[in-house]
Amino acid sequence: xxxxxxxAAIALSSSLFVAASVISNQPLRRSGEDPVFSQDxxxxxxxxxxxxxxxxxxxxxxxxxxxxxxGGTFYKQWTLLDDIDALPQPGTWTTGRNTWAPDVHQTSxxxxxxxxxxxxxxxxAHHCIGTAVSDTVTGPYIPDEEPxxxxxxxxxxxxxxxxxxxDGKQYVLxxxxxxxxxxxxxxxxxxxxxxxxxxxxxxxxxxGVTKVGDPVTILDRSDEDGPLxxxxxxxxxxxxxxxxxxxxxCYLEPSYNVNYATSTGLRGPFQRAPRPMIRTGEYALQxxxxxSAVHVDGRVGVAxxxxxxxxxxxxxxxxxxxxxGREVRVEID
Length: 333
Description:
Number of helices: 1
Shape: globular
Oligomer: single chain
Structural class: mainly beta
């Protein structure tokens, strides 16, 4: 696989040289295969605070319910804040363990809101989405005592992420965790009948928590996705293109990937890319996924996890991308 990756990089080198001559002077990653954070840090989400500091929030690990790492620049090495657990006590409806996929946004009044996936105390085989607030970006966040989205009949809900559109309206995307009530197979959902795992869009008020109307499905799994789609992250380009990053396949297997779909409208229809943006074997990565997209110096930067090259766990990577029409592609040095 490493040889194939090298050959692919050589074939792309001439076009990448032209692109590199006009991009921002923000440093690129050293290479596609090097993590920017070399400890277990799954499902990274990214937030840039008002002072320009980059923060990453990760799933339970390294002795913390919600990990926080800090970076001076997006594409360089990040450092774990060892003395910080951003959510030491998740909502009382949770088990207080196995808290997944946090995402942080700041509201118009300066309050920070965290969305997280909590293990349900009454049904630990499932997760639901909770919300928590803080006056500081690193917390500690104080959880609401009721989940934000939690229909256990359809599997619960995970992988929430916030989005603010150009008109200032606020939204939360999340995945209905249908594979948790599936009938077996890869990630519990490749044995018929296959359960849907839709990604939905929920409008919220300016507080980032109060719902406005009902959620709208903007994408669901297809046969080519295998058991699921999950980990949504939505971004709007300066040209008005909505890019929905997501993962398909199974996170335990090489099938996991960083995929994307595009639309000219917030609610779709979203047009799937002809192939995932990042797959196992490319840039020496194994099971890449869980991406979070942000604007970095006028371009789209993506953070994601992949199996750590030097040991157990999932390490964080970052990469710049090139958006060409509706195509989004990784750019490496």
